[in-house]
């Protein structure tokens, strides 16, 4: 998916032109994956652009940094303000936000004791991450074991697992891959959580399955509660994907997208439960649901 460049990127306390947001080739994170990231969205609302669940994303960024031993050199309030400043500076009514905290250039080697921590915030206009009717395949790659790699942290290093699985799926003619964990149960997709619907009940894998604790996953669960839809977090067998009444993926970049098939087994068109949740999600992110206005942080584009 081609990246549309914006005007500015916030980097280490200041806005810099897009092309000047650079790091050294010997940055520790480039060699050893010592970085954490967040992906957040800005949506157009009746009151102007607003960031969806910014607090939840920033809180997870700090948790991820703590897990892998990164000391973020900016306070929560500073990054909150910097996020809004960057969105306003780039002037988009809707856009994607990428927060990145990484170990920079200071020394080489595993220890990284003398590597400064760099923080950046970039925003850009991004189209649909996945199209409707996803053709899903089960990857031959297994999801990282949380006892070996800290999957509760949204860190860059473990994403190599997703990169390999995504490439395998695309090369095989599919749209996306679902990864199983070491026990053979469903974990998640390369960049999205998985929900199935069976007999009117929504089911999604638990955190112990190796999946990232998704903020959109949590949003779906809360919207399901609004709609009176029961939700269960439990282990899911691969074969259950084939026999699900409905199946969909969710994530910040993806939104909510129905799955049309898994390993060439047809699931069918978008089902009624998925349709209800998609409608509720769209209303929430665009400020049409007053019950969840606290999920939206307005951006003052005139600031």
TrEMBL record:
What GO terms are given for molecular function?
branched-chain-amino-acid transaminase activity
Query: Hey, which pathway is this one from?
Result: Amino-acid biosynthesis; L-valine biosynthesis; L-valine from pyruvate: step 4/4; Amino-acid biosynthesis; L-leucine biosynthesis; L-leucine from 3-methyl-2-oxobutanoate: step 4/4; Amino-acid biosynthesis; L-isoleucine biosynthesis; L-isoleucine from 2-oxobutanoate: step 4/4
**Required co-factors:** pyridoxal 5'-phosphate
Q: Does the keyword Metal-binding apply?
A: no
**Enzyme nomenclature, EC number:** 2.6.1.42
**Top-level taxonomic group:** Bacteria
Arranged from A to Z, the UniProt key words for this protein are: Amino-acid biosynthesis, Aminotransferase, Branched-chain amino acid biosynthesis, Pyridoxal phosphate, Transferase
Q: State the Gene3D superfamilies in the record.
A: 3.30.470.10, D-amino Acid Aminotransferase, subunit A, domain 2
Note the coiled coil stretches, chain numbering: none
Which reactions does this protein catalyse?
L-valine + 2-oxoglutarate = 3-methyl-2-oxobutanoate + L-glutamate; L-leucine + 2-oxoglutarate = 4-methyl-2-oxopentanoate + L-glutamate; L-isoleucine + 2-oxoglutarate = (S)-3-methyl-2-oxopentanoate + L-glutamate
CDD domains reported for this sequence: PLPDE_IV (cd00449)
Record PANTHER family: AMINO-ACID AMINOTRANSFERASE, AMINODEOXYCHORISMATE LYASE
Q: What does this protein do?
A: Acts on leucine, isoleucine and valine.
Family listed: Belongs to the class-IV pyridoxal-phosphate-dependent aminotransferase family.
Provide the protein name.
Branched-chain-amino-acid aminotransferase
Q: Give the organism, scientific name.
A: Microtetraspora glauca
Question: What is the primary gene name for this protein?
Answer: ilvE
